[in-house]
Fold:
Amino acid sequence: MTSTTAVMGNYGRADLAFSHGEGSWLISTDGDRYLDFATGIAVNTLGHSHPKLVDALTRQAGKLWHVSNLYNIPEQAELAQILAKRSGLDQVFFCNSGAEATEAAVKMARRAMHHMGHHNRHKILCAEGAFHGRTIAMLAATDRPAFREGFGPMPDGFGHFPFGNMNALRDQLISDAESGAPEIAAVMVESVQGEGGARPLPDGFLAELRAVTNEVGCLLIADEVQIGVGRSGHLFSFEPSGIKPDIIAMAKGLAGGFPIGAVIATEAVGSAMTPGSHGSTFGGNPLAMQAACAVLDVLDADFLADMRSRSAMLFAELDGLKQKHQAIIEIRGNGFLIGLVLADHLTPLDVMAACRAHHMLVVPAAANTVRLLPPLNVRTEDIHHAVAVLDTVLSACEEKASHNHD
Structure:
């Protein structure tokens, strides 16, 4: 069979393309407007064509695009200083994507343990249902067979604990620490599992996790790739818990749509990363650095407080939909990473297609969940419009299911 395109078929694409965007809206090549509650899967932090982002990239594009990390890159130093100050950590490594960031975080945790003399501590514990990227190593970090099928044996050095189960996790950590030859180097967690169905960790979990990792002497990696960069309503989603991780992995929305990844670490971790221990050809290029600085300049305390208010409004309106529609059995998530858990007679793809027919974009997730990922600067009128579309879509889905049952 001859394909009609030379693009590899590893994505299930809708028959839809876009020419440009304005704020929370995308305009298709046919001229139709779509409300974007997908944002490139939590990437377009400030929507589309934000003037500060356009200006930052345009100015930098006329000066310098790329220079090797064999030299100082002033734009890198500027962004690293901002991230270190706002995270409370010390050093930053730049790359280009979430998978690169989580993979580098794992390397740093293992290297730091080795640097401290704990040569046996190499194992990374992750939650069941986690998603940390699609490299071979990060496939080992997830326990979901759908991502692993056909890719051969997984690398060693990863283990899993039941999501949100602190007792089980504590037992694993303490048993390992008391074994006489501990293997666990770090625990890596998402405070809200994105691909895993917008599942938030239970209240108090992160604080308990920080305490027990300190007790047993292993590191804590916060995967902020999807829930970070303000999507929780805080620049880092762990902030309300009062903890400080040892390593933070970031990407997706950090440069508002320009490829970027970053790993922020404590001095103790960063000091193990000596010249030649890791690298990235394109990581930290001036274009990405300037885009990220522009995003972080917008995401100040006032912006984030206002965003939390708009998120609360969206949650309240969605709760009204849940009371009205049996198609929704749970609403969960945090900030503007929201999951609608669907009744068994619906699938995320059903709801996605129906929303798309009404010119609204949403994203599927595991556990029969649809994700809502609006831009962080989404207007209140666009929130009302999104809820109205969902109301229409769910009514139609329920009516169709009723007819099918009859």
Notes: The mean pLDDT is 95. The chain has 13 helices and 17 strands. The chain has two domains: 18-45+301-405, 52-298.
